[in-house]
Specification:
It is globular, with a radius of gyration of 22 Å. It starts with a helix and ends in a 10-residue tail after the last strand. It has 374 residues and is of the alpha/beta class. The protein contains 14 helices and 16 strands. Strands 2, 3, 4, 5, 10, 14, 15 and 16 form an 8-stranded mixed sheet that branches. Strands 1, 6, 7, 8 and 9 form a 5-stranded antiparallel sheet that branches. It has a 3-stranded antiparallel sheet with strand order 12-11-13. The protein has one domain: Rossmann fold (3-Layer(aba) Sandwich), CATH 3.40.50.12710. Strand 7 and strand 8 form a beta hairpin. The structure holds S-adenosyl-L-homocysteine. S-adenosyl-L-homocysteine binds next to helix 5.
């Protein structure tokens, strides 16, 4: 114990949460990457999402660490809202629940509900549920949506949102924030990558000495190759698939990640102030995320009993949903915004922007028509 206290001043863990994590490891042993991510993102005092509003462009007055599609343009939320309304219509306009996972600032939901007003019947048949773990972001969402006119409730637990009714669900950049475990192929087998303390008491990565007991079926992995297991994500996709298969509905999951082949690289990343940062040095001050394994999500949704469509590139989806025409309409109404609107469309759909790295996966009940854009 004393050894760590004496050297604490040399520690690279420069913030209070990093020091608390170091003491936890000292007391209880190494943390898995998933445990570390959960603390760094959600610790009530120092966790990244628990304590701040991370969204915004680098130079605008909001500051912010990164920017997401709904924050780039209202068109994103509008088109997703119309996607939902179309699926609801195609399934015979059931009594429904509109669920958003990880709604950030609430912008996507505000834009989606505004677009959904085109079909007032939808709003009268739907209860809106926001699944959000962060008190800071919940407060911002309540403010954003205070004039939406819809009946909205908040919960931290997805279980509170899935029973009894057809579920129409949106999740943008949510799954990338769920914890992953990492395993590295060694001569001993697949060893789990853990967060430990180095000789100075600073957080560092180390491989578990014993190979993992998990059966990891990734043939062809080179020595040093990574396997990232997103158990929290696949369990959730299976739950959503189960709810949709049972009660109807549709889910649209949009995120950055890989489609068919996951590869053997690692994708855990830290971002602060629009730049990549160290994963371990300042936990809670930077966002942590990992690429979403869409093939694994699709498989999980299908084992829940639903049908998965895609993934398709975000660019392809938004083009098929009519983003170009929508942009032209907005420019007609506000010609002075032409440059900004054109740039936003390009950013959302071009391969050099978010068009191909970001992908969309749809989940629908067996036998229902293909959703728009797929
Ligand atoms: N969808 C928003 C925000 C994406 S950031 C946008 O596109 O702008 C991730 C969001 O998921 C944040 O709102 C974060 O607080 C929330 N979140 C992360 N993990 C969560 C969890 N386990 N349960 C509920 N919400 C979570």
């Amino acid at each position: 114990m004393a050894r760590f206290r004496d050297t604490e001043s040399e520690s690279r863990a420069v913030n209070a949460l990093g020091q608390r994590i170091a003491r936890l490891i000292e007391a209880q042993g190494p943390l898995s990457v998933a445990q570390f991510m959960t603390i760094a993102l959600h610790d009530p005092q120092g966790g990244y999402y628990a304590t701040r509003d991370p969204f915004g462009a680098p130079k605008n007055d909001k500051g912010g660490d990164f920017i997401t599609a709904p924050e780039i343009s209202q068109m994103f939320g509008e088109l997703l809202g119309l996607w939902i309304v179309q699926c609801w219509h195609d399934q015979g306009k059931p009594l429904a629940r509109l669920v958003e996972l990880g709604p950030g600032r609430g912008t996507l939901m505000a834009d989606a509900l505004r677009a959904a007003r085109l079909m007032p019947e939808f709003l009268s048949r739907v209860e809106v549920v926001m699944v959000e773990i962060s008190p800071a972001l919940t407060a911002i969402q309540k403010e954003t949506l205070k004039d939406s006119g819809a009946a909205i409730r908040w919960t931290t637990q997805i279980e509170d949102a899935l029973d009894g009714r057809a579920i129409f669900l949106l999740a943008n950049e949510f799954f990338d924030a769920l914890p992953i475990r990492q395993f590295v192929k060694t001569e001993r087998g697949w060893c789990e990558r853990m967060v430990v303390l180095d000789e100075n008491g600073a957080l560092t990565f180390a491989l578990s000495p014993e190979p993992s007991a998990l059966a990891i079926a990734r043939s062809g992995a080179p020595l040093g190759g990574f396997y990232e297991s997103a158990q929290a994500s696949t369990a959730l996709a299976e739950q959503i698939g189960g709810a949709i298969a049972q009660n109807g509905g549709a889910a649209l999951i949009v995120d950055y990640g890989y489609g068919a082949e996951a590869g053997f690289g690692e994708t855990l990343q830290a971002v602060g102030d629009h730049k990549f940062a160290s994963v371990l040095e300042t936990p809670g001050d930077v966002d942590l995320s990992a690429h979403v394994d869409f093939a694994a999500l699709a498989e999980a949704a299908q084992s829940g009993g639903a049908v998965a469509c895609g993934p398709v590139g975000q660019g392809e989806l938004l083009e098929k949903l009519g983003i170009v025409a929508r942009g032209e309409r907005l420019i007609e109404r506000n010609p002075s915004a032409m440059h900004d609107i054109t740039r936003a469309v390009e950013r959302l759909i071009l391969p050099g922007g978010m068009g191909t790295l970001f992908k969309a996966l749809a989940i629908v009940p067996p036998g229902s028509p293909k959703p728009p854009g797929f």
